[in-house]
Amino acid sequence: MYKLLLCVRYLRTKYIALASIISVMLGVATMIVVNSVMAGFTTEMRDRLHNFLSDIVIESRSMSGVEDANRQMATVTEVAGQYIQAMTPTIEIPGMVTFTDPYSGESYTSPVQIQGIDPEGKSKVGPLQDYLDSYNPIVEDGVVQREALRSREEPISWELTEQAREHRELVKHREALFLRDLTTDIQTATPESKSAAPDFDAEQPETSTATSDEQQAKKTTPGIIEDDFMTDPQVAANEPEVRTGPLSARIFLGEGLVSFQAQNPETGKLQKIMMVEPGDDVILSTVTAGRPPEPVRISATVVDSFRSGMNEYDTSIVLMNINELQKSRGMQIDNSITSIHIKLKNYDDAPKAIAALQRAFPPGQVTIRTWEEKQSLLLSAVEVETAILNVLLFLIITVAGFGILAIFYMIVVEKTRDIGILKSLGASSNGVMSIFLSYGLGLGIVGSTAGVVIGLLFVRYINQIEDGLSWLTGRKVFDEKIYYFFEIPTSVSPFMVAAVAMGAISIAVLASILPARRAARLHPVRALRFE
Amino acid sequence: MAETLKMTTPLISAEAITKSYFKGEHKIPVLQGAGLKAHRGEFISVIGQSGSGKSTLLHVMGLLDSPDVGEVLLDGNRIDNLNQKARDQLRNHVFGFIFQFYHLLPELSLLENVMTPLMIRHSILGYWKHRKEIRDSAMQIIQQVGLEHRIKHRPSELSGGEMQRGAIARALVGRPEILLADEPTGNLDASTGSGIMDLLKSLNENQQLTIVMVTHDESIAAQAHRTVRLAHGRIQTVAREDAA
Prior knowledge:
The structure holds two protein chains of two kinds. Chain A is α+β, with helices and mostly antiparallel strands.
């Protein structure tokens, strides 16, 4: 009983020991925060990666693909159907996209990964609607800037939205008139010399400059932006037949490919400027499936914008209607495809499914991998980072342990005479030792508990804390443009919290062993005489 | 009468105690064949110069230290060669110690200090079961030494005399048979010291408490029944005997 009493009294009165409690507390809190944030990142990243990649992907080694998609899919169903929830055929090949920036008139070409898909099939193996602009509202700083253009009930197709069609009409008319104007100028420039060479030195109107009579004849047509070209009666009379229907090749275009961030001069905020919108046309360049491949150019209409939130996809993906891609590449004859995306009923069946599939397909013809294997580089990097951080932080707590050891040693030295007294009263050596061991345990428990509370509070309010820090330092601490997420993702695992707390308590107890042993071994008489 | 007293077995007896200390390479002999006997109810004082080894003799008798040569007997039974646990038990049940510098535990109140030997005696469960008796025993002895109005105070709030009386209360709460006192008045002024001596004498008379007291002060030593002198590591003279 004297042990308990003394232990409690020491905890309450020895303020220097609080210094060692603080180090335990900070170590525990830090570990909890760091582990929660890393787990949050990992979970979010895995979710996003997994959402975009299917559970299992069968890919042909050759860009020419494998023949007879239906037979291939039948084979898959035959050997692994019991594991499979959905699958869809795709054609995945590298290529380039060329588009024109309407502001500068410049033409840009970027490398892309062209994925020919069947949208309905693709949405069964992964969330496609979540990534398409027309199905989602545009939200900035929590404020809805534009509602979703399509409802979630509407099945995904290659049809343009109302807005896209209007935009396309406008653009096509403008282009047609510009072209017609160009040729008219050439024709009317020198009527005597029709056969003469066109006068290219004459100024060509680049924008819709209006003459005074044209201004008077302005009429506004609902739905179309006031445009002097359109309202010029002279022009209207000569309006040619404009084909505004979308091209047969349709694509969902990765947003990052055709947008950039510019600072709004009025608000100073960064906003996204889109150079290509749904309704516009772009040119895809790729190669045919021939042996050897031949270059092929595909003009395609942009149906929608693709935004997954993962930078590497948004700046490289072009989803295209698979039939058109087949035709362009000459794959339609054999109904060839390059890959099959599979969604499993239960992801734990992956190894079995893959084993079954590998037996069914000729080795060397295809690779069969899970999404984790495909992204192993990124995933293992995150894992390694987490492991290293944990080691480092645990080392820090161990350092805290040495602090406890030193402080305890000092306390034992200070208490030498008291220990002598206790022994003279009949206290056993083990009893004296257990006073200090329980003191260490008590300190560890107090420090751990405080650390857990502080750590969990920090995690709970981490975004507010980040806001505060950003305000304090004047710099954005967590920039969503650098990281993938808008809010710091966290994921608290009770097991992790318990493990960290236990670890810290163990270190505190271990640290108190040496001083406790010294206390136990003190010779009563020498202890009593200690100055 | 005196002969009868001498014939009974002494309560505690130290025989031919030899003890040396080592200071680095040097061996410093402190006790060289010292012996002391105390009968039940006796109040003995041991007098000697500083460094004469009188404290050491006390420590050996109370099993705080072990002799190099010699024996300590309790009621005729040898106790200096017992194992650690038995020695701890004896120190808790049989012996009571008081020292020159009181040595109360600073973190505990006076009452808690006095209860400490009983807390050592019982486990946590045992303490909980007997807590009333333990507290009552402590209060009783505290009243005997006249400190009942100071029980909640910390040692730092007590005077020298009060602390020594508290230490005496602590030494006696477990009802030991022998009180070993090492210079109990050494740090107190004359009047406080004489108050302590009065207390010791009354405890000795009223409760038959055997007291072996070490001091360098002749006038303090004279207040015991019997005085022995320790010099050159040996008990040299028997100063006087109390008339029967």
